[in-house]
């Protein structure tokens, strides 16, 4: 059973002008597809050839872990954004963020700070660590499930996520992510 590239949950131009069709053509169409292709090549003929993606992540090391985790991370990232998203959440998610961080503005500041200070490639996350909501950052392909935490939201801070649209300006990409892209319905579904 080979792994498939999941469909994007919106059209290639749906996040423009915040994230361009060109970025998605490369980031989804080339990078995410390459992680899927690499993973399929690596699991073929091994004990993990018919395992779930989560089981591969739990059991693999080195390149197989990196490619499996990047397949999972990118699918989660696409679902962490939506056209017309961003801004402060209401409902249960807004309440949980207020309880954990004091206010949405305090959360926003801490999340952007985590994403800004991830040196080099990686990810920033909102997670449920079992004792409440927390912010986490991970390097390269690393992800919350490898640290006994449940992912609720992520932003990709590899340069390939923003270089076409924002060049080296990671802060501009992160501010746009927070204010115009975050899919709070996805966060609510994860908290379910
Ligand atoms: Mn990426």
Tell me about this structure:
By secondary structure, the protein is mainly α. It has two domains: 21-79, Helix Hairpins; 91-191, Iron/manganese superoxide dismutase, C-terminal domain (minor pseudopilin epsh fold, 3-Layer(bab) Sandwich). The protein has helices spanning 21-43, 53-59, 62-79, 91-101, 104-116, 163-166, 170-181, 184-191, and strands at 122-128, 133-139, 150-156. Strands 2-1-3 form a three-stranded antiparallel β-sheet, sandwiched between helices. The chain is globular and about 50 Å long. It starts with 20 loop residues before the first helix and ends with a helix. The mean pLDDT is 97. The structure holds manganese (II) ion. Residues 27, 31, 74, 156, 158, 160-161 line the site of manganese (II) ion.
Keywords:
192 residues, mainly alpha, Helix Hairpins, minor pseudopilin epsh fold, 3-stranded antiparallel beta sheet, 8 helices, 50% helix, globular, binds manganese (II) ion
Shape: globular
Residues in helices, as a percent range: 40-55%
Total domain modules: 2
Quantity of strands, as a count: 3
What is the CA-CA span between the terminal residues? 30 Å
Radius of gyration from CA coordinates: 16 Å
Parts with pLDDT < 50 across at least 5 consecutive residues = none
The total count of helices amounts to: 8
Main sheet characteristics: 3 strands, antiparallel
Q: Spell out the CATH superfamily of the largest domain.
A: Iron/manganese superoxide dismutase, C-terminal domain
**What portion of the residues fall into strands of 2 or more residues?**
5-15%
**CATH class (first level) name of the largest domain:** Alpha Beta
Specify the structural class.
mainly alpha
Enter the CATH topology name of the largest domain: minor pseudopilin epsh fold
Q: If strands are numbered along the chain, what order do they take across the biggest sheet?
A: 2-1-3
Chain-averaged pLDDT: 97
Secondary-structure element sequence?
HHHHHEEEHHH
Bound molecules: manganese (II) ion
- CATH architect. name of the largest domain: 3-Layer(bab) Sandwich
